[in-house]
């Protein structure tokens, strides 16, 4: 993997994190290919090869539906989230495809409460080169605990 591609990969991770932390939901689907897979799954299920996931979206259309749900149909106490994302560990790299693993932690802050650790785990990503730059073909968010407090509203 050359420096230019690695730098672009770091930019993809930083831009993604900024979009989900600032609630820029219109941008979120654009980080993915049209036929993408986005899944949030407990570690136990992932390690056992069990398909049950907390959230599983296939294709950019389902990502857009999720954004519609966040804005129009889901009612919840408002909160902010802040991601802390590690440096990507490159598992495979070719000219057109990168497989990477990255640790993450998501902190959640409700306006009238102290911040708390909301979700911790790792991203298992397959990223492909497109005409618009690098995009996630799949993003599997494997979280370490068996449960998520309350419900999962915003993307991890």
Automatic annotation (TrEMBL):
Q: Which domain of life is it from?
A: Bacteria
A molecular-function term among this protein's GO annotations: salicylate 5-hydroxylase (NADH) activity
- Domain SnoaL-like, which positions? 4-139
Which EC numbers does the record give?
1.14.13.172
Q: Which Gene3D superfamilies match?
A: 3.10.450.50
- Check the record and name the InterPro entries matching this protein: NTF2-like_dom_sf, Rng_hydr_dOase-bsu, SnoaL-like
Could you tell me the keywords of this UniProt record? Oxidoreductase
User: According to its UniProt record, which protein family does this protein belong to?
Assistant: Belongs to the bacterial ring-hydroxylating dioxygenase beta subunit family.
Protein's UniProt name: Salicylate 5-hydroxylase, small oxygenase component
């Amino acid at each position: 993997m050359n420096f230019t591609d690695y730098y672009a990969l770091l930019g993809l991770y930083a831009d993604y994190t900024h979009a989900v932390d600032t609630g820029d939901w219109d941008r979120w689907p654009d980080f993915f290919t049209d036929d993408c897979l986005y899944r949030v799954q407990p570690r136990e299920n992932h390690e056992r090869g069990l398909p049950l996931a907390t959230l599983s979206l296939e294709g950019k259309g389902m990502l857009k539906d999720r954004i519609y749900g966040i804005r129009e149909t889901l009612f919840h106490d408002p909160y902010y989230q802040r991601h802390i994302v590690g440096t990507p560990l490159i598992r495979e790299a070719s000219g057109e495809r990168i497989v990477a693993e990255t640790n993450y932690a998501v902190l959640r802050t409700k306006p009238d409460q102290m911040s708390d650790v909301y979700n911790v785990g790792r991203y298992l990503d397959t990223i492909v080169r497109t005409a618009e730059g690098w995009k996630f073909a799949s993003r599997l968010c494997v979280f370490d605990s068996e449960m998520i407090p309350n419900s999962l509203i915003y993307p991890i």
